[in-house]
Write a structure and sequence with these properties.
Helices cover 73% and strands 0% of the residues.
Length: 95
């Protein structure tokens, strides 16, 4: 009975390790996507910053960047609550 208990524990531990490895892979994939997004934003900003007059190319880059930012913001939503204004806590009257 004692060995049976630990045998089951070992299988559960192995399954947990596999799940954690999968989660790590997913987090690494997400990190790569964020890195790609940051690179796209920087490239678009470089086009805009290197153009004294906002040319058609710069305007297109700016419009594309704004569309990407809006789409990403919509996809993520307000996960951290930063889009919702913080209401000040009521203060007690001081005597």
């Amino acid at each position: 009975m004692f060995l049976h208990f630990f045998g089951g524990f070992g299988r559960r531990l192995h399954r947990l390790e596999c799940l954690m490895a999968t989660a790590t892979e997913q987090l690494n994939e997400l990190s790569t996507k964020v890195d790609d997004l940051i690179a796209d934003v920087r490239a678009a900003l470089e086009v805009i910053n290197n153009d004294d007059d906002l040319s058609a190319d710069a305007q297109a880059a700016l419009d594309g960047l704004n569309a990407k930012i809006d789409a990403f913001d919509t996809e993520v939503g307000d996960a951290d609550g930063s889009d919702t204004p913080v209401e000040p806590e009521p203060t007690e009257p001081q005597n």
